[in-house]
From TrEMBL, chain A:
Keyword Signal: yes
InterPro entries per record: Imelysin-like, Imelysin-like_IPPA, Imelysin_sf
Pfam family membership, one: Peptidase_M75
Entry protein name: Imelysin-like domain-containing protein
Main location: other
Places the protein is found: Cell envelope
Residues covered by the Imelysin-like domain: 50-352
Keyword Signal in annotation: yes
Organism: Ensifer oleiphilus
Annotated signal peptide: 1-22
Record keywords: Signal
Automatic annotation (TrEMBL), chain B:
Organism: Ensifer oleiphilus
SUPFAM superfamilies: YVTN repeat-like/Quinoprotein amine dehydrogenase
Lineage start: Bacteria, Pseudomonadati, Pseudomonadota, Alphaproteobacteria, Hyphomicrobiales
Protein name: DUF1513 domain-containing protein
Tree of life domain: Bacteria
InterPro entries assigned to the protein according to its UniProt record, in alphabetical order: Quino_amine_DH_bsu, UCP028101, WD40/YVTN_repeat-like_dom_sf
Length: 374, 363
């Protein structure tokens, strides 16, 4: 059970005052990357988070392909609900690993093909609606679907197929075309998930580069570069939630005036997966932090930095899980809105802890995102 | 008293910048660029996480600081109009113009609808116009925003950069061309700083006519260097354009990182020793030319190094370890180099210096 927002917020403020950051003139130990600890951390990140995460993703895409095929074969309300449940489980699996936006995810537009968001101009929506209206057969074949716009072949498109206007036809034979399009998307997602897994499982592929930083390595010449990439997952992950997942639908309360909100800009609003997805993003980051032993990169006198980051992880995950139902209702409801305000504040706090406190303490200078040149 | 704003009304500007920051602008005497010993300016982050801009002496001592509403990146100085501009870091939405003699209040301009700043720009030869590299993010094309200094830097037009992801831009020696480093990386503010096209980058260097906006020359890079992002430029002793790159390809490649070209000529890459390319970590963060000494200065925060080249031969004259090396600018002799951990020449300051330094004079 999560604490009430007011209580949890009070605790978060207390945590803020911990002497976590390397301050000028303080007696903390010198801030240099603990190079000896890095390879083990990278190996655990790969073996205990990334590969199991993509394996889970692949399981969930396969399950979705199966349930959506079954839906087409025997359309009914029950089989439609089965497919929807498989979709929600896939969203959970994806939200856990989508924080790994590097390596194979950046190649062949895999990330965007899996999830195209934000879609501010509703490009994807219009394309999906056009495919459904014209009964475009090329969208029902996984090979030709792959060549279509990234916005018409991923989770956003499938959510519309399963939950959007007219989706009730899936419960009977009228939904035959819509259903086959959904199957093609599910198969496409399954293919991409298997590619992620295969790329990371290749013994001489990206995992080898991650585990052994050094000269001749195609990813990292030394352990500091590897540590920078890994910390980047956390900083970019929290930034993504803050700027691309929360802000588009609710900008917070400013000077006592709450943002009126844009519920239809929220990710997965049709399937009510907005908050479950955000909770899974944070849970993925927290799990990675733990299983990779990120705290082993900290000097002894700064171990409290990890504890306070973990505290805020727990509080943002807990509060995200208590906001349920349609996101429009949550924005309109005083109690839920207070939770969203709490979440917004604590997400910014978490970003600062990881970027400045943790980044500084493990020896990445003025903080991670400060040091990315440009 | 407050800031004069070119394109945004005061109300929305205050919302953007924060009232506390605007209040600091009132006392113009607190930030006097007219001090004759003010030789450099650089953006910084203070220990409390706030951002600002400082002037420094030739020796690297801070003279004064002013607060900025958000993190700044590149700067430019005009000797003709004695103005300095600081651009917000990409995808930034503001630029602040300061007058050197303190006679005018700082002017803050906001990015136009559908555009954001990339963090660099320059003044026209007469100092009247300000050019900024900008992103037309819906169209995914680089633009040059043009701002009129005689009208509070109102945006009076734009030219294309003839490439995507422009970053640094400078004025040619004769003042008739803008030299632009189109980094070739697609970004969109909806996705923050995420690089969206690493497997199909389109880096290029272009020369654009300041009078007409016409494309004078465009150099794309060969296919095997498509992941070499051309990012920063400066003008060499003979008017040639020097450029420095950041490589997005495999870490164990040894791509060329620095080169130069002149109007009507092909690109010429400097062939650096492998040890220098490796030491730069395939990433040059800033480049500067010391025209009097005939030297090229390079810094790499990723490699933790500052390198000096002979502008005539490209030979490496000096390679110095500087942890978290940030900016580089021509000094009275050689270069001033700063670092994220507060070093500026031989002085240690309690700030984190940002990636670029501007010299407040044409050397």
């Amino acid at each position: 059970m999560s604490p009430m927002p007011s209580l949890a917020f009070g605790l978060a403020l207390t945590a803020l005052s911990l002497p976590a950051m390397a301050q000028e003139g303080s007696a903390l130990s010198p801030r240099v990357v603990n190079e000896a600890a890095v390879p083990a951390v990278m190996a655990k990140a790969v073996d205990d988070f990334i590969i199991p995460g993509y394996r889970n993703l692949s399981d969930k895409t396969a399950a979705l392909a199966k349930t959506s095929t079954a839906l087409c074969k025997t359309p009914s309300t029950a089989s439609r609900e089965n497919a929807q449940a498989a979709f929600s489980e896939l969203v959970q699996a994806w939200s856990t690993v989508e924080i790994i936006r590097l390596g194979p995810a950046l190649e062949q537009n895999r990330f965007e093909r899996f999830l195209f968001y934000p879609d501010r101009k509703s490009t994807g929506l219009k394309q999906v609606q056009a495919i459904l209206a014209k009964k475009d057969e090329t969208a029902t074949d996984v090979a030709s679907l792959k060549g279509k716009s990234v916005a018409a072949q991923g989770l956003g498109a499938l959510e519309y197929v399963l939950y959007g206007n007219g989706s009730e036809v899936l419960s009977n034979k009228e939904g035959e075309f819509r259903c086959r399009y959904g199957v093609a998307i599910a198969q496409n997602l399954d293919t991409i998930a298997n590619e992620f897994l295969a790329e990371w499982q290749k013994p001489d592929g990206i995992q080898a580069a991650w585990k052994k930083p050094g000269p001749g390595n195609p990813e990292f010449r030394d352990s500091k570069e590897a540590a920078t990439e890994l910390l980047g997952i956390f900083v970019h992950g929290v930034e993504m939630v803050k700027d691309q997942r929360l802000k588009p639908f609710y900008a917070g309360t400013v000077d006592g005036t709450p943002d009126k909100g844009h519920p239809k800009s929220a990710i997965y609003w049709r399937s009510q997966n907005t908050m479950p997805s955000i909770a899974a993003n944070f849970a993925g980051l927290k799990t990675l932090f733990k299983v990779a032993d990120m705290d082993s990169l900290l000097p002894e006198d700064s171990r409290s930095v990890a504890g306070s980051a973990n505290f805020v992880f727990n509080s943002v995950i807990g509060i995200s899980q208590t906001i349920d139902g349609p996101i429009a209702n949550a924005i309109a409801d005083d109690k839920s809105r207070a939770k969203l305000d709490f979440l917004t504040l604590n997400t910014a706090d978490l970003l600062d802890r990881l970027n400045r406190d943790f980044g500084g303490a493990i020896g990445l200078g003025a903080g991670f995102s400060f040091a990315d040149g440009d | 008293m407050g800031a004069t704003t070119g394109l945004i009304d005061r109300r929305s500007f205050i919302t953007m910048a924060g009232a506390a920051w605007v209040a600091t602008l009132g006392a113009r005497s607190t930030f006097a660029l007219e001090r004759t010993d003010a030789v450099f300016a650089s953006a910084f982050m203070a220990p409390d996480g706030s951002f600002g801009l400082a002037t420094l002496t030739e020796a690297g001592e801070i003279i004064e600081r002013t607060a900025l509403p958000a993190r700044a990146h590149g700067m430019a100085y005009s000797a003709a109009s004695e103005r300095t501009v600081a651009f917000a870091r990409r995808p930034g939405t503001y630029a602040m113009i300061l007058s050197a003699d303190g006679s005018a209040e700082p002017i803050v301009i906001a990015a136009a609808e559908g555009r954001h700043f990339y963090g660099h720009g320059c003044f026209s030869a007469d100092g009247r116009l300000l050019y900024a590299t900008e992103n037309d993010f819906a169209g995914n094309r680089g633009m040059i925003g043009i701002y009129d200094g005689t009208r509070s830097f109102a945006r009076i037009g734009e030219f294309p950069t003839y490439g995507i992801g422009p970053h640094d831009m400078t004025l040619s020696a004769d003042g008739r061309m803008l030299a632009i480093a189109n980094g070739g990386i697609e970004t969109h503010p909806d996705f923050g700083r995420t690089k969206l096209n690493l497997d199909h980058m389109e880096p290029s260097l272009t020369l654009v006519d300041t009078a007409t906006g016409a494309l004078i020359q465009k150099h794309t890079l060969p296919a095997d260097l498509s992941r070499l992002s051309t990012r920063h430029v400066d003008i060499g002793p003979k008017g040639e354009i020097w450029f420095a790159c950041q490589y997005e390809g495999a870490r164990d490649d040894l791509p060329p990182l620095v080169g130069h070209f002149s109007h009507g000529e092909d690109l010429a890459f400097v062939s650096l020793p492998e040890s220098t390319t490796a030491a730069l970590a395939n990433y040059v963060g800033a480049i500067a030319v010391n025209r009097n000494d005939g030297l090229i200065g390079l810094t790499s925060p990723k490699g933790g190094i500052a390198v000096t080249l002979d502008a005539g031969t490209g030979a490496v004259l000096k390679q110095e370890r500087v942890i978290d090396a940030a900016g580089v600018a021509a000094a009275d002799h050689g270069f001033a180099v700063s670092s994220y951990d507060g070093r500026f020449k031989d002085h240690q300051n309690p700030v984190a210096w940002d990636q670029h330094i501007v010299r407040l004079a044409r050397s």
